[in-house]
């Protein structure tokens, strides 16, 4: 499938932009897991094209060379949260002798999945969470995976269970994820959790990690959410939809932009807070941003870069260079939302252990 | 609690409007169940005030005496749906000898609740659904209610269970509603159903009746939803939130206006489709409406009316007179969404029976 998109946001703001469906990449824990690098050549639009109608004032702002936005440093916030978690875990161990445990099930030999699992394991070790890993062969049966889930569901030393996605194609992902006990669903993706997240007066057992990380960044940077216009770009089950529900719980007035939105630029430009999670490099240009808006960029997109030793570099959904001139605050990529996701996974695992053992 | 609101939308469009929290009334099956009539005297704003900034073109439209909007006739659509349900029930009975059954549990002596239950019973009879009613005394225990729910859960002749709200204050509503089997939750309010409604690629067992009725009206009147801007006013668990999720499933670009929204008029004016469910008489004025918008008005609000033999009349959230001049289509109150809610309840009960007996 030939794909495109602008890999460099220095191109004209009146260029044609194309919003591709989120499914072209897989997001897992806020990281867009990619199969191939996007090509810098534009292809035909799949859903819609946008001719940007940049307002004069915005052009002026975009053309100025000043950089005024505050950088929202996810790496440093995540470090702070991990320190807080470490302290709580030490305190719990001392008080009641309990150490939280996270089990991860990996099926098959995908290198990227193996890297994500290794990173989670390292993160657990760094804060004092016990990690348990099961690595099954690509040709394992669904029953084998279910057997391990059932074992972890019953194991009192395990407080969180993660099944690393994607699973091999012969397995039914929904069956497998539904088998994880809702009490240990630290991913927070169980429909019962999502339902509680959507409903006023109900509380989910766990809030999905990346959305929780986005809101935590806003909180820790003192961004007022109540009564603000918030636009979420993307409506995936794992980022866009739950982050919109969280923003609404915080009394923002939300709008959700997606691949069928006819005028995404115009809608986005109304936002005081923009959270983008579509996986399209540099899609959100300066002209999409209201001066002073706060931007949380969830996209982590590889684009070809001959100058990089790896042959590519990572960019967000938002054209960072342009955003810095117009927004009041923006997350960088990498170093923005990415580090928050694993921190929130550790936080959910700790929450689970505290709840299980009634430890405040 | 002294309350207000404009009972007559002939008042100036630059008047102060106040949006009260939804909780001042109780919505059940799309009907705002009211304790007292609202007083026509404006009181102090509780959340925010709006000074409308009507654009000249809108003022012109509002001042014209022409009425151009199509009336979305919920009564007639509901009749049509009930005829379709009757035909399907006859067919199912002839083919497999099964008749759908709906059980309703009423606790206490509220006259309005008794009326709603009676109306549901009558509606069931009219389409050939068996109805079962349990009427418990106000001082019944939670255990007694749970015992009946458990009995209906196990009864194969019952395909849907409704607990009429509100319950007496000594009962835990959430415990009682959670006891209804998700397979018989024809209200569609179980968090698991709401979660599935929110998630792409998942299907709820039942869609909540009033939201389903709103979308059905749009469908039957050939209103295109895909790619349209839709504004939902109100974020209740039973109307606002699920109807927003449904609109998003239909590829609308949704925005949700609520009591904390700073500029509800401005946000609403961007909508191609407005669905209002706040329970505030005549809150949405002509100046809130984009010319040509389609309006679904879920509010059913009693306002004092000395000329009426009952001393009051029912009006919607939307100033119907002004809407008729600006919108392309609008639901009246009464006779709009109201009749659709019970039709959708019958539809959900039929769906449940068909699923249980694998009847297509």
For this entry, give a set of tags.
methenyltetrahydrofolate cyclohydrolase activity (chains A, B), Rossmann fold, THF_DH/CycHdrlase_cat_dom (chains A, B), six-stranded parallel β-sheet, alpha/beta, 360 residues, homodimer, one-carbon metabolism (chains A, B), multifunctional enzyme (chains A, B), 15 strands, photorespiration (chains A, B), three-stranded parallel β-sheet, 2 domains
Note the topology.
Two copies of one chain form a homodimer.
Chain A: E1 16-18, E2 26-28, E3 31-33, E4 49-51, H1 56-63, E5 70-71, H2 74-96, E6 101-107, H3 111-127, E7 130-136, H4 142-154, E8 160-163, H5 173-179, H6 191-198, H7 209-220, E9 229-233, H8 240-249, E10 253-257, H9 264-268, E11 273-276, E12 294-297, E13 301-304, E14 312-315, H10 320-326, E15 329-330, H11 338-356
Parallel strand pairs in A: 5-15, 6-7, 6-8, 9-10, 9-11, 11-12, 12-15
Antiparallel strand pairs in A: 1-4, 2-3, 13-14
């Amino acid at each position: 499938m030939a794909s495109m998109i602008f890999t460099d946001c220095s191109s004209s703001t009146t260029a044609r932009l194309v919003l591709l469906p989120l499914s072209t990449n897989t997001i897992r824990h806020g990281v867009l897991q990619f199969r191939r690098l996007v090509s810098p050549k534009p292809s035909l639009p799949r859903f819609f094209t946008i001719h940007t109608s940049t307002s004069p004032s915005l052009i002026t702002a975009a053309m100025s060379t000043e950089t005024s936005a505050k950088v929202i440093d996810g790496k440093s916030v995540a470090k702070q949260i991990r320190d807080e978690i470490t302290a709580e875990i030490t305190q719990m161990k001392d008080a009641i002798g309990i150490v939280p445990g996270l089990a991860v099930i990996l099926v098959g030999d995908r290198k990227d999945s193996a890297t994500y699992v290794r990173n989670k394991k390292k993160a657990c070790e760094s804060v004092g969470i016990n990690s348990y890993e099961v690595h099954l062969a690509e040709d394992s049966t669904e029953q084998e995976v279910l057997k391990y889930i059932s074992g972890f569901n019953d194991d009192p030393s395990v407080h969180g269970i993660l099944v690393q996605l994607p699973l091999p194609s012969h397995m039914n992902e929904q069956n497998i994820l539904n088998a994880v006990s809702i009490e240990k669903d630290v991913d927070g993706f169980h429909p019962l959790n999502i339902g509680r997240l959507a409903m006023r007066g109900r509380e989910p057992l766990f809030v999905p990690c990346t959305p929780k990380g986005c809101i935590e960044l806003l909180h820790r940077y003192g961004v007022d959410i109540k009564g603000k216009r918030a636009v979420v770009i993307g409506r995936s089950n794992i980022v866009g939809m739950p982050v919109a529900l969280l923003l609404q719980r915080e009394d923002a007035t939300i709008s959700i932009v997606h691949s069928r939105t006819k005028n995404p630029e115009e809608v986005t430009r109304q936002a005081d807070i923009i959270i983008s999670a579509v996986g399209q490099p540099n899609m959100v240009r300066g002209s999409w941003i209201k001066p002073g808006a706060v931007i949380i960029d969830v996209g982590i997109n590889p684009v070809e870069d001959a100058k990089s030793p790896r042959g590519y570099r990572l960019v967000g959904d938002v054209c960072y260079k342009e955003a810095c001139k117009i927004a009041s605050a923006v997350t960088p990529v990498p170093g923005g939302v990415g580090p928050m996701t694993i921190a929130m996974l550790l936080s959910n695992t700790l929450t689970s252990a505290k709840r299980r053992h009634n430890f405040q």
